[in-house]
Amino acid sequence: MSDAAITIEGLRKTYKGGKGQPEKHALKGIDLTVPRGSVFGLLGPNGAGKSTLINILAGLVVKTAGRVVICGFDQDKHPRQSRAAIGVMPQELNLDPFFTPRGALEVQAGLYGVPKAQRRSAEILDLVGLSDKAEAYARTLSGGMRRRLLLAKALVHHPKILVLDEPTAGVDIELRQMLWANVRKLNEQGMTIILTTHYLEEAQEMCDEIAIINHGEMIAQDSTANLLGRMDSRTMVIAPDDPVTDLPSADGVEAALREDGNLVLRYQSIQTSAEQVLEAVRQAGIRIRDVRTEEADLEDVFLALTSSREDEAPVDDHDQPRRGMHRVRL
């Protein structure tokens, strides 16, 4: 059995333009491998092509060219088996308001051809915390409960791969923690998880490996640790005993003063050591009350890899912007 849950080769999707309009290239030859049993992050700015890629995996959009293999099933040769291997929790709350959670799961299982003896609606409802709402109409559920139901629907056919498309967008902290606890549990049981999110802190914490796409092109795929390792930048923040009048000067060190009076020094660790930075501070006659250092996080990597092409127009308008939790993001 292959170590890859999903293999994508040369994937292209082109939309015909309107009258007098050029074609739109949503995906431009994507090559991607998702390791089996991993929590895999699929990141990119708005309009990068993430939703197009997910919809192709789910069998909802027909690709223009390329090859997609899901759990060993070529999507062109075995479309039914490849679709059955993947479950998708979409961004949109596309629920029938007149179905109960139990009824929605039973219908979804029937659509996938799951025999009644193999259905586990009660178990799934318990997993997502909806057992006490099993017989309530979906229209009476809160927004957070509806998102739980979307996750439950994605699990009814026992998929080997679960795609979470912006799962925590607009949800409260309690639901976010519950969702990630469930994701960890499913992953421990062997399920491969693919996550798209604009909350880069979540991706950094949850994902073993990350791919970043921009304007339909793959610009990076590596382990989370290796992606973070690409950024050698360091930031030293010093709280001085007295107001700073002269900024320290040293080769490879960029110094700036914040409005709160703290001194910020940026440098590359491969060129300049922390001791050299501190020596420059001493030479400037600055007495240190407190000091801390910061390393690059996933947001820094993301911005560095995508900012060079910000001026290009997006081609996939399905990715809606979300507000970040703690740090500014694209």
Q: Could you characterize what this model shows?
A:
Residues 6-240 form the ABC transporter domain. This is Multidrug ABC transporter ATP-binding protein. Among the domains are: 4-85 and 159-228, Rossmann fold (3-Layer(aba) Sandwich), CATH 3.40.50; 232-295, Alpha-Beta Plaits. Helices cover 28% and strands 28% of the residues. The protein is built from ten helices and 14 strands. It has helices spanning 50-57, 79-84, 101-111, 121-127, 143-154, 173-188, 200-206, 224-229, 274-283, 298-306; strands spanning 4-15, 24-35, 39-43, 65-70, 73-74, 86-89, 161-165, 192-196, 209-214, 217-223, 233-240, 253-257, 263-268, 288-295. A six-stranded mixed β-sheet has the order 6-7-8-3-9-10, with helices on both faces. A four-stranded antiparallel β-sheet has the order 2-1-4-5. Strand 7 (161-165), helix 6 (173-188) and strand 8 form a beta-alpha-beta unit. Mean pLDDT is 86; it is low at 310-330.
- Our estimate of the beta-strand percent is 25-35%
CATH topology name of the domain at 4-85 and 159-228: Rossmann fold
Supply the CATH superfamily name of the domain at 4-85 and 159-228.
P-loop containing nucleotide triphosphate hydrolases
- Shape field: elongated
Main β-sheet, spatial strand arrangement: 6-7-8-3-9-10
Radius of gyration equals 24 Å
Oligomer: single chain
Category from helices, strands and their pairing: alpha/beta
Number of strands: 14
Unreliable residue stretches: 310-330
What percentage of residues falls in helices of 4 or more residues?
A: 25-40%
Please identify, by name, the CATH architecture of the domain at 4-85 and 159-228: 3-Layer(aba) Sandwich
Region (Disordered): 309-330
Domain ABC transporter: 6-240
Biased composition (Basic and acidic residues): 309-322
Organism: Ruegeria profundi
